[in-house]
Design a protein that fits this description.
Layout: E1 2-5, E2 18-21, H1 29-45, E3 49-55, H2 58-62, H3 74-84, E4 88-93, H4 96-99, H5 103-114, E5 119-123, H6 136-146, E6 149-153, H7 168-176, H8 180-187, E7 192-198, H9 203-206, E8 212-214, E9 225-233, E10 242-249, E11 260-265, E12 276-287, H10 294-314, H11 322-328
Parallel strand pairs: 1-4, 2-3, 2-5, 3-4, 5-6
Antiparallel strand pairs: 7-8, 7-12, 8-11, 9-10, 9-12, 10-11
Length: 332
C-alpha cells in the first residue's frame, strides 16, 4: 500500500481511483462496510481504491489541551488498511489552512487536483470544509459539477439491531469501562495497540516478572487493569503469537505517578527492545488495585497470569469479519 503524507505529490498509480474519505478511527465494522463499498466501486471501474484521512485528529487541532483517545493512530491504521486491500492511504495535515478551506475549495484542491478522484465514498454523517459546512448532499452536488461519482453510505448496525450505529466514540467508552469483548464485537477484531518496546525501570525483573514496556500515544485511556493479551512482533512477517498478561495503569503500589503499558509474555525468553509489537486486548481480567506488600502483589500476578492463559485458551477469535480473521491468522 502506498502511504502519501503531508504535502507529498500524489503518485500516478494513486490518481484517478476511488477515494473513501473520513477519519476512520478504529476502522470498526461501520468503516469496514464503507470501505467494502469503495472496493466494489473500484472493481466496477477498474481503478485503485484508497483512503483520504487527516492527522492529527481534527479534535486535537481544535482542542489541543484535550488528548484524544485514538483507537488506531496513523501507523496502525495504515497496517489495517493494507490488510483490507487498500492501494493507498493519503493523509492530509489538519492545520489552520485546511480548516479554513470552503467545502468546494477542499474538494477541488485535494480530491480533484490532488487525487483526481473518479469516485468518492463517504459516510452519512461525515462533514468537511470550514465550519463543517460540507455535507454528503454538498459532496454529491460537487461531484456532479466537477465530474466524479459519489456514494453515500448510510448508518451501519448489526443486522436487525435497532440500536445505535457503530461508533468510534461508543467503542472508546466501552474500553474505558472495561467492556473489551463488546468493543471487539463493534470493531470486528480485538482492539490492538502498536508500539515500540523500550527499556523501563527493570522493576518487573526484580520480582520474577520481566515485562515489555510499550510506548503508547498520548490520550490512550482504556480502563486501568490487567488484561489477557496476545502479542506479535510487528517487524517480523509471520512472527509467532505469544500469550501474555498485560497491565495498563499507574502502578499504585509503587506511587510512580506515570501511566504504563507493560506485558508479561508467558513462557517467552528473549529481547524485543526497539521492536514494534502488536498487543491485542482480548479481555479484562481485573481492575487495577493497590497492594499492601510486594509479596501480595507477586501472588496476585501469578494468579493473573494463570487467569489470562485460561481466558486465551478458551477464547474463540473473531473470524467472522475480515480484520478479525486476518488478525487471528497473524497476517496484520
Amino acid at each position: 500500500m502506498q502511504l502519501i503524507t503531508g504535502h507529498q505529490p500524489v503518485p500516478d498509480m494513486c490518481r484517478g481511483g476511488v477515494v473513501a474519505i473520513g477519519n476512520f478511527d478504529g476502522l470498526h465494522r461501520g468503516h469496514q462496510t464503507l470501505l467494502a463499498v469503495a472496493e466494489a466501486e473500484s472493481v466496477k471501474l477498474g481503478r485503485p481504491w484508497g483512503v483520504l484521512s487527516f492527522e492529527p485528529h481534527p479534535r486535537s487541532f481544535f482542542r489541543p489541551d484535550e488528548p484524544v483517545f485514538r483507537l488506531t493512530p496513523e501507523a496502525l491504521k495504515a497496517r489495517l488498511l493494507a490488510a483490507l486491500g487498500a492501494s493507498f492511504m493519503a493523509v492530509l495535515p489538519f492545520d489552520r489552512d485546511l480548516s479554513e478551506l470552503s467545502p468546494e475549495d477542499f474538494v477541488i484542491r485535494h480530491l480533484v487536483e490532488g487525487l483526481q478522484a473518479a469516485h468518492v465514498v463517504m459516510g452519512y454523517d461525515f462533514h468537511f470544509g470550514k465550519g463543517r459546512k460540507g455535507s454528503p448532499a454538498i459532496m454529491a452536488e460537487l461531484g456532479q459539477k466537477l465530474g466524479f461519482g459519489v456514494t453515500i453510505v448510510e448508518q451501519v448496525t448489526d443486522e436487525g439491531d435497532q440500536h445505535s450505529p457503530f461508533s468510534s466514540s461508543a467503542i472508546r467508552q466501552a474500553l474505558r469501562h472495561g467492556h473489551v469483548t463488546a468493543a471487539a464485537r463493534d470493531l470486528g477484531y480485538h482492539w490492538t495497540v502498536l508500539g515500540e518496546v523500550v527499556k523501563g525501570d527493570q522493576r518487573g525483573r526484580t520480582i520474577g516478572f520481566p515485562t515489555l514496556n510499550i510506548v503508547l500515544e498520548k490520550g490512550a485511556d482504556p480502563v486501568r487493569g490487567i488484561y489477557a493479551v496476545r502479542v506479535r512482533d510487528a517487524d517480523v512477517q509471520g512472527a509467532p503469537i505469544w500469550a501474555g498478561a498485560g497491565y495498563f495503569g499507574d502502578r499504585p503500589t509503587f506511587d510512580t505517578g506515570r501511566t504504563f503499558l507493560e506485558v508479561y509474555l508467558i513462557g517467552f525468553e528473549g529481547d524485543l527492545y526497539g521492536h514494534q509489537v502488536f498487543v491485542e486486548f482480548v479481555d479484562l481480567i481485573r481492575p487495577d488495585k493497590r497492594f499492601s506488600s510486594i509479596d501480595e502483589l507477586v501472588t496476585q500476578m501469578k494468579a493473573d497470569c494463570a487467569a489470562a492463559l485460561k481466558r486465551l485458551e478458551a477464547e474463540d477469535p473473531i473470524t467472522a469479519f475480515p480484520l478479525g480473521r486476518l488478525q487471528a491468522e497473524g497476517r496484520i
